[in-house]
Amino acid sequence: MRPIKNITKAAITLNDKILLTKNKDKDGDYFLLPSEPQKSGEQLRVTLKRGFTTKSGYEIDVHEMLYVKEYMAEYYDNPEWEKETHQVDYYFKCNFSKDEITNANKLNLDKNIYEWIDLEALDGVRVYPEDLENILKYGHS
C-alpha cells in the first residue's frame, strides 16, 4: 500500500491576480498554487503558513478551506508526479498578513519562482489542476 501525501495549497489573490509558482518541464512553463506537504502531527493551516513563509519570506493568513481534491497518478496527467503518487490536496483561501501589502506588483517575490497571473487569463495558461478556475469561482471542479 502506498502512503498518502497531504499537500496544502494557498490560493492568494490580490488586485484581480492570483499568485502561482512557475515550473518548467519538457513541454514548457506550467503553473501551480504555492504548496507545502504536511508534516506528521502538524495542522494543515500551520503547514501552509510555515511553508509559504519559509519559501517566500512573507507571512500569510490562512482562511477557509475552498476545496479538497484526491489524486492518484494513474488517473491524472501531472508532470510533477511519480507513477505511485497518492495525494490529497487541501486548497485554502489566503492573504498576506501585512495590511500594507495591497499591490501585487510591489511585492519582492523571486520572479524565477512566483508569478502573478490575471484571474481572467487563467484559461490561456497551463495550470494544474486544470480546473483551478472553477475551484476558485465555485468551490468545485
UniProtKB/TrEMBL annotation:
Any one GO MF annotation of this record: hydrolase activity
This protein's record includes keyword Hydrolase: yes
Gene3D superfamilies xrefs: Nucleoside Triphosphate Pyrophosphohydrolase (3.90.79.10)
Cited SUPFAM superfamilies: Nudix (SSF55811)
Keyword annotations of the record: Hydrolase
Record InterPro entries: NUDIX_hydrolase-like_dom_sf (IPR015797)
Domain of life: Bacteria
Protein name: NUDIX hydrolase
Upper lineage: Bacteria, Bacillati, Bacillota, Bacilli, Bacillales
